[in-house]
Amino acid sequence: MINVLFFGQLKEQLQTGQLSIELPVNDVKALKTALGQRGVLWQECLSGASTLVAINQTIGSDKSTINDGDEVAFFPPVTGG
Questions:
Q1: pTM over 0.85
Q2: Where exactly are the structural domains of the chain?
């Protein structure tokens, strides 16, 4: 089981903050592809170059490995001051 979290605009656009899924995925790119099967909006939100990902609270990339029990979070760029 993979716990997938969405923050910021992604949470609002996708109308969900969390999903628990069991999918045969081994990296972030495969997870994005699987979630993209939910529709065009999902594809657009997750394929954006500015969408960031963290695995177990560590910034990752499309090539980052995902294991059973991991937490994967997608979020928009963060700015602060």
A1: yes
A2: 2-75
CA torsion angle 51 59 38 44 (round to 10)? 10
* CATH class of residue range 2-75: alpha beta
pLDDT at 79: 62
CA 12 to chain CA centroid, nearest Å: 14
Question: What strands, in cross-sheet order, belong to the sheet with 71-75?
Answer: 18-21, 2-6, 71-75, 52-55, 58-59
Residues of the chain below pLDDT 70: 79-81
Look at residues 21, 37, 28, 36 and name the one whose alpha carbon lies nearest to residue 74: 28
User: How does pLDDT run across 20-38, given as a tens digit for each residue?
Assistant: 998 789 999 999 999 999 9
